[in-house]
Automatic annotation (TrEMBL):
Limits of the HTH araC/xylS-type domain: 187-285
Superkingdom of origin organism: Bacteria
Keywords: DNA-binding, Transcription, Transcription regulation
Keyword Metal-binding annotated: no
GO-annotated molecular function: DNA-binding transcription factor activity; sequence-specific DNA binding
Organism per entry: Pullulanibacillus camelliae
Name of the molecule in the record: AraC family transcriptional regulator
InterPro entries (UniProt xref): AraC-bd, Homeodomain-like_sf, HTH-like, HTH_AraC, RmlC-like_jellyroll, Tscrpt_reg_AraC-type_HTH
Length: 286
């Protein structure tokens, strides 16, 4: 089974990458669907659909997306209007966590997005200009690599996060409505999987739930989410297991059960395959 996970160098002393102003059509989109680093995506031009953690969003000029680590996501660029975007990938360890007097957190946007399942900001013209300038500054630093360029990249990342957090607080939006892309059954099935992770989920059973053939179900599900059904379900279970490992004192066996794995050995095998570490090692070192 292919693990659909974007790989970064976990041992680098500078856990930061920038993909600047790339244009992608449907055939050039990479099959990367989740990773441990945080991600910020900004759209310069084009149209498409962004699937992020159970929700479909429309994509157009001026949209900005905040994707926490360990979140399933997949883009569907429009064939007639390919997407041009920039993306920043970074490990949260490079972010300043001093709160000072106002208890401000640069990672607020990611915490809020995960809590509300809301990952999109639509920027006005002035806000677009500011964000584009920040991305341009980072690209200039990476290109020139003058002394201190890595510190400069982190500085501009902090400025982007500050701007994003202020926008979120200014708008005080509760949640962005889901973008109804594709058939209604795909939205219902995604919610069904989320609510029944601990149960036995199979392609044939989900197809029956959606009242369509397994072949059609499999094709459309892969097209919309970027993953086949088995990989999607396993990835969701792994994400849930990681949260339980970090936030509870439950035994590994109990976490395996709560995450929907039918046995502890099977859980160990899948966790090591998808995360690259055993559950115990992940809990101890994260």
């Amino acid at each position: 089974m292919k693990v659909l996970k974007r790989q970064f160098n976990e041992h680098t002393h500078f856990p930061f990458e920038l993909a600047y102003r790339n244009t992608k059509g449907p055939k050039s989109e990479l099959p990367d669907h989740f990773h441990e680093w945080c991600e910020i995506v900004y759209i310069y031009d084009g149209n498409g659909t962004f699937f992020i953690n159970n929700t479909f969003y429309s994509m157009q000029k001026g949209d900005l997306f905040i994707i926490p680590g360990g979140t399933i996501h997949h883009t569907l660029p429009d064939a007639d209007k390919p997407l041009t975007s920039s993306a920043i990938f970074f490990d949260a360890t490079i972010i300043t966590h001093d709160f000072y007097q106002d208890l401000f957190s640069y990672m607020y946007a990611f915490e809020q997005g995960k809590q509300l399942n809301d990952y999109k900001l639509a920027l006005d013209e002035q806000e677009q200009y500011a964000i584009e300038a920040f991305f341009c500054n980072i690209q200039t630093e990476i290109t020139n690599q003058a002394i201190g360029f890595q510190s400069a990249c982190v500085h501009w990342l902090h400025m982007i996060l500050l701007a994003i957090n202020r926008l979120i607080l200014k708008q005080q939006k509760e949640a962005l409505p889901a973008f109804e892309k594709g058939p209604k059954w795909i939205h219902n099935i995604i919610r069904y999987i989320e609510n029944h992770l601990i149960e036995q989920l199979t392609l044939s059973g989900l197809a029956r739930e959606a009242c369509i053939s397994p072949e059609h179900f499999s094709r459309v599900f892969k097209q919309m989410t970027g993953m086949n059904v088995t990989d999607y379900i396993t990835t969701k279970r792994i994400i849930k297991a990681k949260e339980l490992l970090l936030n509870t004192d439950d035994t590994v066996a109990l976490i395996a059960e709560k995450s929907g794995f039918y046995s502890t050995p099977h859980f160990y095998r899948m966790f090591k395959r998808y995360v690259g570490k055993t559950p115990s090692h992940y809990r101890k070192h994260s």
